[in-house]
Design brief:
The chain is α/β, with parallel strands linked by helices and 379 residues long. It contains 13 helices and nine strands.
Length: 379
């Protein structure tokens, strides 16, 4: 008798566990079905995407890949097209990571962005020095730049939609940053100060005449002087007949930054030059202190992690800020062609904390639904 009772109780327990599992799975499926797709919600406004690393495109981060393939229609290579990664030695190109990135994007029918051709960071030392360790001459550095741009852009001709040709060339006051590109190619001469930028854009256009070409920088939405410097740069390039399709505003924000006024100033000022505007590296830091810019040398994942990132109060503020930013972008959608998050979900962010729309389990956060509401309300 006791054996039969035990058997019955065991069967009942199994039945209950099975039923609970079925209900949980059903609820999960229903919840998944109820989550809208970002690229569909925003399809009449602008492209939406994220920065992808090697773990995503090779399938090692299946969580990120699932988000990318469902929600994004454009992608930027986080590191795999930067000079240090793709061209580590004078006569050596490392194509495998970039090839994987391009193939992944093509497989998923995404608009592919190349980031970036000329930057002062993540560039091998040999680029600027001769065999004795001295700075190169202007002509030799121009030759190295041309070889790099022609080779990289040429390899992906007709496959990459657009290139961040020059990245972060400006100081906060709008003047040109004193990089080796400027010092060597500009030779300290006022009439040569834009020379390296001009050459970079010309050679990129020659390598792929149909690719869009962009200038990309941070703090354009927070520093009017820097934004004005970008405007001057665009006007100069246009005066020389050089093709430039858009300026990228990186927009690494915080819970209190940027202001609506600052973001609108950047968009309207840049668009007035005749180029389109893109938000190219969007994320929102959740910590209240510490460095908030985009200079990678000043960012530490450890120091920017936020123990309160998952708190309801922080998530509410995060959602409100994303909704505010998206509302501004949608207001100016005739001038905005792309919005790209710098990362895919919180667990893969370069800055730690809780800066993106998907949490560390890959689930959409309150901020995600705030963005969706903003898009739907703009119709």
């Amino acid at each position: 008798m006791r054996l039969r009772e035990r058997a019955m109780k065991t069967r009942q327990a199994i039945t209950i566990v099975t039923l609970v599992g079925f209900l949980v799975g059903a609820v999960s499926c229903m919840a998944e079905q109820d989550v809208p797709t970002l690229k569909d919600v925003l399809k009449n406004h602008f492209l939406i995407g994220g920065a992808l690393n090697g773990r995503v495109v090779t399938g090692r981060d299946s969580l990120a890949a699932a988000i990318v393939e469902k929600h994004f229609n454009t992608a930027t290579a986080e590191n795999d097209l930067k000079w240090q990664r793709i061209h580590p030695w004078p006569d050596q190109y490392n194509w495998e990571p970039a090839d994987s990135y391009v193939a992944y994007c093509e497989k998923n029918r995404m608009a592919i962005i190349g980031h970036c051709l000329v930057w002062h960071n993540q560039v091998p030392r040999w680029v600027f020095r001769d065999d004795s360790g001295n700075d190169l001459t202007r002509d030799v550095l121009l030759t190295r730049m041309k070889d790099h741009i022609t080779t990289v852009v040429g390899r992906y001709k007709g496959r990459i939609k657009g290139w961040d040709v020059v990245n972060e060339a400006l100081n906060e006051d709008g003047t040109l940053r004193n990089t080796p590109w400027l010092r060597i190619i500009g030779e300290g001469s006022e009439d040569k100060r834009y020379d390296y930028i001009e050459h970079a854009f010309r050679w990129a256009h020659e390598a792929d005449p149909n690719a869009e070409l962009y200038y990309n920088d941070y703090s354009l939405e927070s520093s009017k002087a820097k934004c004005d410097g970008a405007v001057a740069l665009v006007k100069h390039l246009k005066s020389k007949g050089i093709r430039i399709a858009a300026v990228g505003i990186q927009l690494h924000g915080s819970l209190t930054h940027p202001s609506v006024e600052g973001l609108e100033y950047a968009i309207t000022s840049l668009a007035a030059t005749g180029v389109k505007v893109m938000v190219t590296e969007l994320d929102i830091r959740t910590q209240s202190r510490g460095y908030r810019g985009a200079d990678i040398s000043r960012v530490s994942r450890a120091s920017t992690s936020d123990s309160d990132a998952a708190s309801a109060e922080t998530q509410k503020k995060l959602a409100e800020k994303y909704a505010e930013i998206l509302s501004v972008l949608l207001k100016h959608k005739k001038d905005i062609t792309r919005v790209t998050f710098w990362g895919v979900y919180d667990g893969a962010s370069w800055i730690g904390g809780s800066p993106l729309l998907f949490d560390r389990s890959g689930q959409p956060k309150e901020a995600f639904f705030a963005v969706v509401r903003a898009a739907r309300e703009s119709r």
